[in-house]
Amino acid sequence: QRTGDELIIAIAGGADLMLEQRAMESKGGLLEDIYGVKIRLEEA
Question: Confidence band (pLDDT; 50, 70, 90) for 3?
């Protein structure tokens, strides 16, 4: 789901969310620079 300058990605399962959040911490800035949107992960 995209709202304004933020892309919200819903992930099912708590363990997967933690792993994905760690990946986004290291790569999220790159995605923001390229696409111009902030990435936010949420548990579905």
Answer: confident
